Amino acid sequence: MNTTRAPDARIRAAFDEAGVTGYLHAVDVDSDMQDSRTQISVGADTLVATSSVHKLCLLVTLYRQAADGLLDLTEQIESPGDARTGGPTGLAAMLDPVRMSMRDLAYLMMSVSDNAAADLLFQRVGLAAVNDAMTTLGLTRTLATQTVGELFATIAEDTGQAGVRALADPQVVARLRALDPTRTNRGTPRDMTRLLTAIWRDRACPPEYCAALRRILGLQVWPHRLASGFPFDDVHVSGKTGSLPTVRNEIGVVEYPDGGRYAVAVFTRAASTAATLPAADAVIGTAARIAVEALRAP
């Protein structure tokens, strides 16, 4: 790839090569957020379907409510084995009843993107509270309209009797409400880096709660998207992925040993409906690395 071109042009070229439409915002966490020289934008204000990235909004709301004394993070929540939101990880994939604290549910929701854990917390916190918290933090274009289970219900309705087999059909995928940012949970790349910056600057909630948020984000297990762009032992990547048919997203913060901290949000939509597209996953890391290297350049 030609490294003499502007970073936004290189990022667009990487998206094209991977067969995705992509949007990105990257910013130096410790910079003036209004300074264009300390951020990289590729469609940063485009409205996107956030998918499981929106779990970060729920997490922040949960910890803000805990800081305000509205709930106790150690409160135990019951999860019956026969009434859970489905999914391939965490409680969503388990068979038996479980009882655990809200903070442990939050860990599962973020580290392995556990859908059942997320919906238990949505039930406790409420969509309206999540939206109010995001508005307070200045995320003016971010909105939660449904729980994970409700989102899945729209996919089931939109695919009809064919079920998951229909997700291989581009025409079916094109009409999924879950992928339409005007009809599902939504936000913009710039809003997401604003949220990450607030967490890393201890502005999303009191410092001890922001430290807990950073810890949880640092425990995400998936290395194939954002983290793949930074395969260095001394660079730490914290993040949250999001996935739906043709959609692959990740937001996170990249921290260097010299103290540099960079918030990055990458949202993509693949032309192919294939469930496995390594290039579409990897380009998230590639685009993030191009952006961060540009921000770090003298």
Number of strands: 9
In which order are the strands of the major sheet placed?
Answer: 2-1-9-8-7
Oligomer: single chain
Could you say which structural class the secondary elements and strand pairing correspond to? Answer: alpha+beta
How much strand?
15-25%
Q: Rough shape?
A: globular
Number of helices: 10
Low-pLDDT runs: none
What is the C-alpha radius of gyration, as a whole number of Å? 18 Å
Mean pLDDT: 96
Give the N-to-C terminal Cα separation. Answer: 21 Å
Question: Helicity, in percent?
Answer: 25-40%
Largest beta-sheet characterization: 5 strands, antiparallel
Order of helices and strands: HEEEHEEHHHHHEHHEEEH
Could you characterize what this model shows?
The chain is built from ten helices and nine strands. It is of the alpha+beta class. It has a five-stranded antiparallel sheet with strand order 2-1-9-8-7, with helices on both faces. The radius of gyration is 18 Å and the shape is globular.
